[in-house]
Eukaryotic translation initiation factor 5
Amino acid sequence: MAKVVNIRRDVDDKFYRYRMPALLTKIEGKGNGIKTVVPNMSDIARALSRPPTYPTKFFGCELGAQTTFDEKGDRYIVNGAHDATRLRELLDQFIDKFVLCGECKNPETDLIITKGDIIIRDCKACGQRTTVDMRHKLTTFILKNPPKISKKSKKAGPTENGGGSPPTEAAEAEGAESDDELTKRIKLEAAELADKTNLKEDEWAVDTSPEAVKARVEALGGELRSNLAVGDDDSDEDANSPYKQIGQWAKENRETASAVDIYKHAQDLGIEKKHKTLQVLVQNLFTENIVSEIPKFGALFAKMTTSERHQKSLLGGVEIFVGVTHPDLVPSVPKILMALYQYDVLEEEVIKQWGTHVSKKYVDKDISKKVRKASEPFLKWLEEAEAEDEEEESDEE
């Protein structure tokens, strides 16, 4: 039996909780038929929560060698003779590139494939999502052979657990729920947020009985009660309007408030389903570090964005935010759109329509044109990604 080592071999702590079997190799055959077998690849992959084909294929990519998988027979082979030391070094590289969180370097991650075919490491330890190096050859293999897990909701494109390990209890529980697909996905996001906010997954569900609503309204105070039935029109210039209320609250509490806190506050104000709420939150919840702040609130915006109208209002908030409040952030528009797109907040067709049609609804025409002009690199990326998908489908046919 192989000895057990730290997943991060640069960590000397003997109490380090993340462990895996030391990689073993066995040379078989001779001459042109010589090959290296990794007899415990399945055990290693299980510890990393990745399919055993991924590190095996990574070896082949790095060594320029053919690889063979016999999953039923549990045999993973790299052509040629390769010593264990060299393969262990390559395994360290695989772990660094495709397992460890890019933020906290914790191996407790899942691989997620976005609808734009971007591979992300989703960290359950710190809650961050970091993109893998999409230039590596292994990414093509992963996209064609996505990780398998029990079915989870997807707005567009798979969101899979990385690895051959069994589904988590949370995932199994979700499968038994009768909520719509969007709610299932957001509840999963909320569970991940719990690592930071110490809130349980079921805290997304708020008691909406008449008694509970009345109690929350009473807690808000009489001054606010008359504003709870505000509609979608723009007659909210009153300083006590719910939109002004949530905007001010979001600005004052953005450092400490969790996504769940914000959603509940919107519910208390009766505007959690209003498209204008998204516009207001974008303008008041973020700072000049919006690109790095979006992951913290990705679940919130995905939950609240339920229609094309919601998406357009959110984009209107982005226009005001970068075009008026933070004009120096205009060059960051592609990154902002990418972040929102990866969290399934914005749909491809809505982004394309928005990016090619100047509008004076939220800002003046010149600013609108300037913001959309800045979005062109992302629009081009969407077009190229779609063309590549069509080409791959054609090749497969």
Notes: The CA atoms of residues 136 and 381 lie 18 Å apart. The chain has 17 helices and nine strands. The mean pLDDT is 79.
